[in-house]
């Protein structure tokens, strides 16, 4: 009778048992998947699986089941492997299963007729870029609470550490959480990154690899965490680049996988073994990094993540709908509180706060041919200088699960790589800062931009940002051609005047208060919020985005009439663009109140706030016009 | 027929472990012949056997059947007894196999012969290929195959009603290039079974083909001298088209894939044959390299000394080899995934045939090799390395340079797809349907969409080079101008996404070189390289240029050549060439005054040179109509966009994929020609257009307009999948052309449509008035009598006083300029002198 955690601790055993029973009937593969899916469906069971995101690699048991919350950063070429092979020893000719493994055990009889060649693909996965520290922390703490099997002492009996895990794992846990917390402060990053990537490398068998710095190819600078090579066996077509997934798979850190890259090559080897010589050292480093740094994960089950907010139930189950309906009741009140909070943050500007709130829940919900619908890029102009924007970003970061602040200084625009580029030498997609997960908040700080010369890469970067905002797509650079990848990124631009980038909506900030010490002011506001309150905001923002939305025929008619009337009054200033925007605003406004249909009131409100905003921009325009 | 030895019997079940996967199912000098009798004659089992994966292990990287490798050894056994073997130029590189085969084959011969006697059904082990039959079939194919409908450019100049490949053999005998390219689809249509064998067992069948060809060739041209024996290079295997669809079942089969070269390695000398010499008795022996391994002879056969043989490098035989990385072409990929790459090995004369950036079709044998074992570890990576051994390269863009036809895309349509497309084409309202499927998110603008639709289809390509006129432009150019925010860019984006070879540039960001081509020095080789720009890249596609008006003059000037001659001439840094740029231009321009001024002509509004404007077939204005009914429909459309569910939209409009296929199909297969009535209608239409103006003393149409009409009519016929341009097509072309003119060429002063606005940049009335002012001025000056010099300002005031109509300073200056052109006066500073 297999113990309840065997499927976590020895998943390969389960696989092999099923393979042995199958008698080469190919159906066993489906059965394996069924089994693990079934196990994970059970209540709470997925939280027993240790997570690569939270537990340092060297505490995880090799060949155990782990989960990994990640973004598909690159997809390598498919590879053929021995799905079934026969051992070479003639006395004990046994069929073995090669699936979910990197290496074969014992010698392989290559002449066997029973060998089955199968296909799998490798994805290079990185932790979700820009994941907010709070999201990491919460998922870490909740994981640590329920994970008994992360023990790094494999000799122990399972039963026993379940009993005494309180005593045993507690000290460790606090240690890890300390590093986590350190990293959540914006300046503590470099240090903990070092810890993360270097600690395991001391175990590596190939010392030559330690010296050469391994680029883990994270999209954003200063990121940390494990990157992973995920071997995918089923449903290859269902995965796309930049998907965010929670992957359950078998961890493999076999040192055999480490390819030792010789500094020079034996000429005879080159002559006689051309298949080997074809791979450049760069390519080998990118595709076969030391397993101790980039572990392999053999995927058994993957769940696409709609969001990475740990406060929300992630699976679309009955749980979630219950959660949603219970939260809907509170929605209006939470919204009011959040609005008040944001108003404070935006120096008392209620309108700007309203728009910021709408922006934070915006989402590209569909595309009509090339047109992304639902995007709502906000340009907050007239931002006070001197680190106000930085503080503002920190507050946004506290609210959303994924965010990144791009300070648009001349230097960063000229030097930073925003658009991912294919490196044909290493045969991989070199990531760029615009390779982001869906619904990431991208905070573009244009107040940092000074006058000066943009060089060609700077122009390309600006163009890429413009494309991102207008079409919600990024053209990845494949050197011989470009390839378009649709994305869904919330872009917030803060600027002094109108932004040089396009935006869906510009709101000039009109501060009602001028605190003498901005830093202090914002910190106080931030501190005044209880964590429970902030958590509510976080849930609110993630939830409002996922709600369904529709417009009734009746309201449609009203909206149409309204538009015609507006055009009649002033055909010059009301264009199709305006209707586009107002429809988005109306949608977001309804959703922010937890309403899933547009009401006439909602439309009027949308019209009203848009009117207010317009009068403000016009006011500013005329102000600027008067300047010499 | 074939002597028993010619049967490539072979395959030693290898026992040497990993690095040498089993059975190279090829003939070979085999030292382990002991296994042979045990070998089954294995008829057809392999194909039927479910263990397809088996074949994966039969891959033998080293023993790849490169035609070159094959033919070097095949003459020795293949055409034994024929003059071929005596030829000194054959097999000179490798004498050893001869020796080895002769010395070692007898035992094999015996085994084979007995089997042959037994069944007369001798097949190559592991396949169902009988060499004799196969050879015979192939010879029959060569002698008899006729393809009267062939339109490949390789076959240019051949008599299509004669056996195709016999002509090619003749060509070989004349030119002396011993390579015979064989189109697999020909083989398939001739003998499906032979084709199946070729695809499934290329390793065995191609050498057999080689033998067959050489026998045939030397029978026919016994005196010809070739560098080496003829190699058969099959191409266009229909097995696989897409890199993504390669799977383990394709291993060791012949496949054709398309892709783009991204990297090529340096030349790698690969040892084919090792030369050993005994240090004791100087006895020499040759050992063929087997999958990267040399079986070093331990004992000298002459003097029986052990370990006395040493490898002599410079007497060993090497062949060329190159690794090429190919990436799947962007058109083949599902959205949201990254392109796959495949490693390809080119051998001998195929080395350096392709460069990075080339788009090629590769025919070759797909291989999988187990990874190298780590000698220190018993465990092995369970992964294979895959690659393709090339048999044939076919550049897809090479053809474009010759510019014959568009089938380079060779987009394949399934029967069903063609059926759906044809059904769609049969519908009477297909034109309306397609145009409304175009950019459904953009509201109305039906005529513009129709215009763009016709642009997507394009006219029929005609070649008048024999009469000295050169290529006739078949592409339709369209300019959209209008107020900002009328979704011009969106339309451009849509078109750019729709066509396979589209380019999108913005006038602001592009320079002349970026559009055309520029010469660059390669930093490594110091070689000059021609880099192509957007217009060249969109050859056969559409180049979308946004913010056309923001383009600098010098940039725009390159468009003149492109938009009429459809070529780009480069004369730069020692490279002088003419590149094809048969691209349609879809441009969008904003009015100079940000809002369209209805009181001005198109030219005045967008400030583009008329020479350029006249090259656009259709110029549309996208204006804000500002009327209530329109607003209502617009509002309805937009709101629907936001709330309709995906399915509803799908119902209403055609799928983008269908539209894409429809266009691709029509562009490839439909070449409509004018019928009698249509030509008559076109003539009438043209005459009518000329007449309109003649009443007012101005030319209102030029041959260019007639050409536009023809193109549009042809495109419309293509939309209907019709091979004939009929009157309906001409009617629609006329209508559309008129609509576009009505918008863009209406003289705001008179309200008449005036084509000269577009052709000369000035309306006829404006020109007339200019002349009148000049005449009035002249008269005035003449009336003054002999005054050699006048004050500029005074003259202006006088003229103003005299004239009934208001005279602006511009008009006055123009009049002066006109008189100066007549050599009547000159203007120097502030004084006007008579001449």
From TrEMBL, chain A:
One cellular component (GO) term of this entry: nucleus
Skewed-composition ranges (Polar residues): 169-187, 198-211
The protein's name in its UniProt record: Mini-chromosome maintenance complex-binding protein
Domain of life from the UniProt record: Eukaryota
Region (Disordered): 152-217
Alphabetized GO MF terms: chromatin binding
Compartment list: Nucleus
Biological processes per GO annotation: DNA-templated DNA replication
Family per record: Belongs to the MCMBP family.
Keyword field: Nucleus
Gene: mcmbp
InterPro entries the UniProt entry points to: MCM_complex-bd
From TrEMBL, chain B:
The species this protein was found in: Oncorhynchus mykiss
MCM C-terminal AAA(+) ATPase domain boundaries: 430-638
PANTHER family assigned: DNA REPLICATION LICENSING FACTOR MCM FAMILY MEMBER, DNA REPLICATION LICENSING FACTOR MCM4
CDD domains: MCM4 (cd17755)
One term of GO molecular function: single-stranded DNA helicase activity
Enzyme class: hydrolase
Family indicated by similarity: Belongs to the MCM family.
Chain positions covered by the region annotation Disordered: 1-96
Keyword set, alphabetical order: ATP-binding, Cell cycle, DNA replication, DNA-binding, Helicase, Hydrolase, Nucleotide-binding, Nucleus
Name used for this protein in its record: DNA replication licensing factor MCM4
Lineage: Eukaryota, Metazoa, Chordata, Craniata, Vertebrata
Physiological role: Acts as component of the MCM2-7 complex (MCM complex) which is the replicative helicase essential for 'once per cell cycle' DNA replication initiation and elongation in eukaryotic cells. The active ATPase sites in the MCM2-7 ring are formed through the interaction surfaces of two neighboring subunits such that a critical structure of a conserved arginine finger motif is provided in trans relative to the ATP-binding site of the Walker A box of the adjacent subunit. The six ATPase active sites, however, are likely to contribute differentially to the complex helicase activity. Acts as a component of the MCM2-7 complex (MCM complex) which is the replicative helicase essential for 'once per cell cycle' DNA replication initiation and elongation in eukaryotic cells. Core component of CDC45-MCM-GINS (CMG) helicase, the molecular machine that unwinds template DNA during replication, and around which the replisome is built.
One cellular component (GO) term of this entry: nucleus
Coiled-coil stretches: none
EC assignment: 3.6.4.12
Subunit structure: Component of the MCM2-7 complex.
Catalytic activities: ATP + H2O = ADP + phosphate + H(+)
Tagged with keyword Cell cycle: yes
InterPro entries found in the cross-reference section: AAA+_ATPase, MCM, MCM_4, MCM_CS, MCM_dom, MCM_lid, MCM_N, MCM_OB
Subcellular location: Nucleus
């Amino acid at each position: 009778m297999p113990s309840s955690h065997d499927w976590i601790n020895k998943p390969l055993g389960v696989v092999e048992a099923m393979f042995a029973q199958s008698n080469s009937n190919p159906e066993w593969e489906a059965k394996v998947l069924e089994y693990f899916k079934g196990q994970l469906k059970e209540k709470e069971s997925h939280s027993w699986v240790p997570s690569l995101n939270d537990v340092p690699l060297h505490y995880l048991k090799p060949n155990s089941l782990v989960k990994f919350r990640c973004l598909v950063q690159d997809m390598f070429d498919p590879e053929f492997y021995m799905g079934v092979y026969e051992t070479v020893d003639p006395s004990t000719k046994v069929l073995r299963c090669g699936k979910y493994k990197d290496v074969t055990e014992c010698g392989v009889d290559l002449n066997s007729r029973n060998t089955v060649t199968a296909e799998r693909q490798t994805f290079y996965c990185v932790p979700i870029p820009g994941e907010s520290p709070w999201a990491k922390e919460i998922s870490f703490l909740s994981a640590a609470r329920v994970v008994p099997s992360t023990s790094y002492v494999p000799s122990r009996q399972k039963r026993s550490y379940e009993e005494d895990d309180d005593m045993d794992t507690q000290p460790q846990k606090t240690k890890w959480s300390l590093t986590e917390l350190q990293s959540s402060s914006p300046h503590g990053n470099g240090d903990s990154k070092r810890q993360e990537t270097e600690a395991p490398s001391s175990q590596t068998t190939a010392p030559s690899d330690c010296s050469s710095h391994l680029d883990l190819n994270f999209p954003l600078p200063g990121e940390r965490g494990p990157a992973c090579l995920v071997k995918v066996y089923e449903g290859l077509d269902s995965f796309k680049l930049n998907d965010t997934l929670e992957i359950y798979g078998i961890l493999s850190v076999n040192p055999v996988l480490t390819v030792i890259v010789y500094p020079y090559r034996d000429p005879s080897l080159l002559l006689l073994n051309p298949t080997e010589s074809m791979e450049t050292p760069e390519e080998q480093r990118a595709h076969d990094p030391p397993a101790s740094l980039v572990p392999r994960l053999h995927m058994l089950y993957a769940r696409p993540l709609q969001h990475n907010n740990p406060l929300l139930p992630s699976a679309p189950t009955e749980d979630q709908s219950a959660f949603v309906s219970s939260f809907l009741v509170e929605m209006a009140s939470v919204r009011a509180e959040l609005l008040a909070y944001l108003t404070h943050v935006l120096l008392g500007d209620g309108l700007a706060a309203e728009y910021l709130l709408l922006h934070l829940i915006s989402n590209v919900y569909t595309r009509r041919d090339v047109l992304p619908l639902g995007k709502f890029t906000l340009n907050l102009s007239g931002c006070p200088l001197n680190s106000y924007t930085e503080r503002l970003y920190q507050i946004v970061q506290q609210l959303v699960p994924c965010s990144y602040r791009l300070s648009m200084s001349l230097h960063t625009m000229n030097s930073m790589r925003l658009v991912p580029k294919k490196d044909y030498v290493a045969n991989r997609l070199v990531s760029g800062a615009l390779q982001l997960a869906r619904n990431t908040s991208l905070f573009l700080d244009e107040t940092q931009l000074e006058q000066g010369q943009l060089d060609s890469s700077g122009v390309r970067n600006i163009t890429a940002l413009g494309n991102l905002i207008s079409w919600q797509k990024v053209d990845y650079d494949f050197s011989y051609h470009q390839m378009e990848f649709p994305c869904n990124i919330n872009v917030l631009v803060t600027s002094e005047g109108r932004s040089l980038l396009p935006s869906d909506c510009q709101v000039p900030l009109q501060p009602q208060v001028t605190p003498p010490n901005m830093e202090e002011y914002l910190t106080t506001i931030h501190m005044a919020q209880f964590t429970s309150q902030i958590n509510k905001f976080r849930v609110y923002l993630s939830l409002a985005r996922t709600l369904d939305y529709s417009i009734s025929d009746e309201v449609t008619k009203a909206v149409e009439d309204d538009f015609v009337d507006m055009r009649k009054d002033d055909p010059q200033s009301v264009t199709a663009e305006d209707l586009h925007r107002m429809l988005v605003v109306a949608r977001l406004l309804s959703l922010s109140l937890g309403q899933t249909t547009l009401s006439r009131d909602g439309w009027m409100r949308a019209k009203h706030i848009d009117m207010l905003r317009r009068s403000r921009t016009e006011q500013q325009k005329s102000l600027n016009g008067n300047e010499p | 027929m074939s002597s028993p030895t010619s049967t490539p019997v072979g395959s030693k079940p290898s026992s040497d472990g990993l690095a040498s996967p089993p059975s190279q199912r090829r003939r070979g000098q085999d030292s382990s012949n002991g296994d042979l009798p045990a070998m089954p004659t294995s008829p057809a089992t392999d194909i039927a056997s479910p263990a397809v994966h088996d074949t994966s292990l039969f891959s033998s990287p080293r023993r790849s059947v490169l035609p070159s490798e094959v033919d070097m050894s095949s003459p020795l056994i293949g055409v034994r007894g024929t003059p071929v073997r005596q030829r000194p130029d054959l097999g000179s590189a490798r004498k050893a196999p001869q020796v080895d085969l002769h010395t070692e084959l007898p035992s094999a011969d015996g085994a084979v012969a007995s089997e042959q006697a037994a069944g007369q059904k001798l097949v190559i082990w592991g396949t169902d290929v009988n060499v004799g039959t196969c050879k015979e079939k192939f010879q029959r194919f060569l002698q008899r195959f006729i393809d009267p409908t062939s339109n490949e450019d390789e076959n240019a100049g051949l008599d299509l009603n004669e056996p195709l490949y016999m002509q090619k053999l003749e060509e070989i005998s004349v030119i002396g290039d011993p390579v015979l390219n064989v189109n697999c689809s020909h083989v398939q249509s001739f003998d499906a079974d032979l084709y199946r064998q070729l695809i499934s067992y290329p390793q065995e069948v191609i050498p057999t083909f080689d033998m067959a060809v050489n026998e045939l060739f030397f029978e026919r041209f016994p005196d010809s001298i070739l560098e080496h024996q003829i190699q058969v290079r099959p191409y266009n295997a229909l097995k696989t088209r897409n890199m993504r669809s390669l799977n383990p079942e394709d291993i060791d089969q012949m496949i054709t894939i398309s892709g783009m070269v991204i990297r090529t390695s340096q030349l790698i000398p690969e040892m084919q044959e090792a030369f050993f010499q005994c240090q004791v008795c100087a006895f020499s022996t040759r050992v063929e390299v087997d999958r990267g391994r040399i079986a070093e002879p331990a004992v000298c056969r002459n003097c029986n000394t052990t370990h006395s043989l040493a490898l002599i490098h410079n007497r060993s035989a090497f062949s060329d080899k190159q690794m090429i990385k190919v990436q799947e072409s962007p058109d083949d990929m599902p959205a949201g995934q990254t392109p796959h790459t495949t490693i390809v090995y080119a051998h001998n004369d195929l080395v350096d045939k392709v460069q990075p950036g080339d788009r090629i079709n590769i025919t070759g044998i797909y291989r999988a090799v187990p990874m190298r074992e780590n000698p220190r570890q018993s465990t092995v990576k369970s992964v294979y390395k895959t690659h393709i051994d090339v048999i044939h390269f076919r550049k897809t863009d090479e053809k474009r340079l010759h510019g014959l036809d568009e089938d380079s895309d060779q987009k394949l349509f399934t029967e069903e797809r063609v059926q759906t497309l044809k059904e769609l084409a049969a519908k009477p309202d297909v034109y309306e349907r397609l145009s409304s499927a175009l950019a459904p998110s953009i509201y109305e603008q039906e005529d513009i969409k129709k215009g763009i639709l016709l642009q997507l289809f394009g006219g029929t390509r005609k070649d008048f080079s024999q009469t000295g006129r050169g290529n006739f432009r078949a592409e339709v150019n369209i300019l959209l101008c209008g107020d900002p925010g009328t979704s011009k860019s969106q339309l451009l984006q849509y078109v750019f996404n729709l066509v396979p070879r589209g380019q999108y540039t913005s006038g602001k960001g592009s320079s002349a070189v970026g559009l055309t081509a520029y010469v660059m020095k390669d930093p490594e080789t110091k070689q000059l390289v021609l880099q192509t720009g957007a217009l060249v890249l969109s050859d056969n596609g559409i180049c979308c240029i946004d913010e056309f008006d923001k383009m600098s003059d010098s940039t725009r000037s390159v468009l003149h050549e492109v938009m009429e001659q459809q070529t780009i001439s480069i004369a730069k840094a020692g490279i002088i060439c003419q590149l094809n740029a048969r691209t349609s231009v879809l441009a969008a321009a904003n009015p100079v005054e940000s809002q369209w001024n209805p009181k001005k002509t198109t030219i005045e509004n967008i400030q583009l040179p008329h020479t350029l404007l006249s090259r656009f077939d259709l110029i549309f204005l996208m204006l804000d109509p500002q009327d209530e009914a329109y607003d209502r429909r617009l509002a309805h459309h937009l709101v629907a966009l936001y709330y309709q569910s995906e399915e509803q939209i799908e119902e209403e409009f055609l799928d983008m994929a269908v539209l894409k296929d429809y266009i691709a199909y029509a562009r490839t297969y439909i070449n409509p020609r004018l019928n009698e009535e249509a030509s008559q209608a076109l003539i009438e239409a043209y005459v009518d257009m000329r007449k309109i103006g003649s009443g007012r003393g101005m030319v209102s149409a030029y041959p260019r307009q007639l050409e536009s009409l023809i193109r549009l009519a042809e495109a419309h016929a293509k939309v209907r999948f019709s091979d004939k341009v009929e009157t309906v097509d001409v009617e629609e072309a006329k209508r559309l052309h008129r609509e576009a003119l009505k918008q863009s060429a209406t003289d705001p002063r008179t309200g008449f449509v005036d084509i000269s606005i577009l052709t000369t940049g000035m309306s006829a009335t404006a020109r007339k008035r200019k002349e009148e002012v000049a005449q009035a001025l002249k008269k005035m000056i003449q009336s003054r009598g002999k005054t050699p010099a006048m004050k500029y300002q005074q003259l202006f005031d006088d003229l103003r006083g005299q004239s009934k109509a208001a005279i602006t300073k511009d008009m006055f200056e123009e009049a002066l300029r006109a008189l100066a052109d007549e050599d009547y006066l000159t203007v120097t500073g502030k004084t006007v002198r008579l001449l």
